[in-house]
Design brief:
The protein is an alpha+beta fold. It folds into three domains: 83 residues, Uridine Diphospho-n-acetylenolpyruvylglucosamine Reductase, domain 2, CATH 3.30.43; 130 residues, 2-Layer Sandwich (Uridine Diphospho-n-acetylenolpyruvylglucosamine Reductase, domain 3); 214 residues, Vanillyl-alcohol Oxidase, Chain A, domain 3 (3-Layer(aba) Sandwich). 28% of the residues lie in helices and 21% in strands. Strands 13-10-12-11-15-16-14 form a seven-stranded antiparallel sheet. β5 and β6 form a beta hairpin. The structure holds flavin-adenine dinucleotide. Flavin-adenine dinucleotide (FAD) binds next to β3, α5 and β9.
């Protein structure tokens, strides 16, 4: 064992493991089982001091640093480096007066949702309550109430970060504003965020759920969805999915082997109008399994029904400036015969609303505020369905809808497969890139955080 590693073990109160140790696989495993990361060392941090010690080890040993809270994010090529697992930094403090939550680096959305609920408050959480708050937020954070309240990055007050030189600093729009700007929407290549203060919103209930249709009616439903979403108030956030349900025992019998179109929505505010707003889609011919109802926000994970248990997933998304009947035709044509699609889930999310509204230049990178929709394709790699087929299928679909695709990409949905430097670069405008590159070069000149965000470009 090297002196550096011995030193690290002495300093850290959490677990430190290498491939030779029991517990290595548990500590390194991601929620996304497609990501098979094999760092030399994993530090399961129990405090900010542990995080600083892990970074100091990386500097002494001259190796890269990678961070993981839940492993829902993009792959980390951390061979030879140190992986800081933040899952034990899970404190949540709610201040009902300032309507804020102070959260630790390893907190998942469900923990914030549950802690805020007794105060009648809710965060800008996404479709899955099991995703990590920090990773989601610094990648932009498209929530199920974002059309009403903006992206997660629009709702951050400040954060604490352990910089690549091991020092702890605070960042907000007043203090270290360039760093604040870079981290919000720029990804985890500037150090480890150990704590973040986010704004909450005053709604404890939403009206949400989904309605399904047999995929043989996809064309009609997609055209209706395009028309419906073009006139919706910001209170309604929604998505439309095509799901190929495998003929597996864990799938309810009546869905096994079927392909369905699923319209999903979450109404936040003015809920007395929810039924009326949702009527055009819910009353379409062939509607099955309508699950819409008023629910406490603590049940909001039931709206999208994202998978909870770890699975191998490989996906990619693009932002669109519009989705019309013409886009729908090109989209479905490119997808091809639905049951034969190598991608299990084909998702279109309606964006716009308050997402387009924030033009405050002090905050939020990813001010790709023209995005009105997100198209995302996801597959489960398995024998006979390799990731290459999924990627080629997605590429073809995005090519066919090119006239509607924005050149700038969504950091959170660039892909669970290999993420190219050009994809990362596409997230930022020239002006944003210049500003955050200056931050990156000044705080991480050796590119220790080379596996995320701007670090990938600088390799
Ligand atoms: C089922 C599912 C549903 C999703 N739904 C949504 C959604 O509705 N809206 C949306 O916007 N996105 C969504 N995403 C994308 C998700 O937000 C990103 O994958 C995000 O990166 C996950 O963060 P994590 O902490 O859970 O994952 P991790 O893999 O643990 O972390 C992802 C990356 O974030 C960075 N990071 C994490 N913690 C820190 C830290 N403390 N300091 C510095 N960097 C850090 C690191 O670069 C890390 O590689 C979804 C993903 C999945 C798989």
């Amino acid at each position: 064992m090297s002196n550096y590693l011995e030193d690290l073990k002495d300093k850290v109160s959490g677990v430190v493991v290498t491939s030779a140790d029991e517990g290595y696989d548990t500590a390194r495993t991601s929620w996304n089982l497609f990501i098979d990361q094999r760092p030399d060392v994993v530090v399961v941090a129990e405090s900010e001091a542990d995080v600083a010690a892990a970074i100091s080890y990386a500097n002494d040993a001259a190796v890269p640093v990678t961070v993981q809270a839940t492993g829902h994010g993009q792959p980390k090529t951390c061979a030879g480096g140190v992986l800081i697992n933040t899952s034990k930094l899970n404190s949540v403090k709610i201040d009902p007066v300032s309507k804020t939550a102070v959260i630790g680096a390893g907190v998942r959305w469900k923990e914030v949702i549950e802690a805020a609920y007794p105060y009648g408050l809710a965060p800008i959480s996404g479709s899955s309550p099991n995703v990590g708050v920090v990773g989601y937020t610094i990648g932009g954070g498209y929530g199920i109430t974002s059309r009403k309240h903006g992206l997660a990055i629009d709702n951050v007050r400040d954060f604490r970060i352990v910089l690549p030189n091991g020092q702890v600093t605070l960042a907000s729009s007043d203090e270290n504003p360039d760093l604040f700007f870079a981290v919000l929407g720029g990804g985890g290549s500037y150090g480890v965020v150990t704590e973040m203060t986010i704004y909450l919103h005053g709604h404890s209930e939403v009206f949400g759920g989904s309605v399904m249709f047999d995929a043989s009616r996809a064309s009609e439903i997609y055209i209706a969805y395009a028309e419906w979403t073009s006139g919706l108030p910001d209170e309604v956030s929604s998505a439309i999915h095509i799901m190929n349900f495998p003929p597996a025992p864990f799938i309810p019998e009546f869905l096994r082997g079927r392909s369905m179109v699923i319209v999903i929505a979450c109404v936040c505010g003015q809920m007395e109008h929810a039924e009326e707003w949702l009527k055009p889609m819910r009353l379409m011919e062939g509607a099955e399994l309508d699950s819409f109802h008023k629910m406490p926000y603590t049940e909001s994970g039931a709206i999208f029904q994202d998978p909870v248990d770890p699975l191998p997933a490989n996906g990619r998304g693009v932002l669109l400036h519009d989705f019309t009947a013409e886009t729908a035709a090109a989209f479905l044509d490119a997808i091809g015969p639905i049951p034969a699609s190598p991608n299990l889930m084909i998702q279109l999310r309606h964006l716009g609303g308050a997402i387009t509204g924030n033009s405050d230049p002090r905050v939020c990178i990813m001010r790709n505020r023209k995005a009105k929709y997100l198209a995302y394709l996801l597959g489960v790699p398995m024998p006979g369905n390799p990731p290459e087929s999924m990627a080629a299928h997605a590429e073809n679909v995005f090519k066919r809808i090119e006239p509607w695709v924005l050149s700038r990409g969504p950091l959170n949905w660039l892909g669970e497969g290999a993420v190219e430097p050009s994809s990362i670069r596409s997230v930022f405008s020239e002006e944003e890139y210049t500003r955050i590159k200056t931050v990156k070069e000044s705080i991480d000149p050796l590119n220790r955080f080379s596996n995320a965000g701007l670090g990938i470009i600088d390799k």
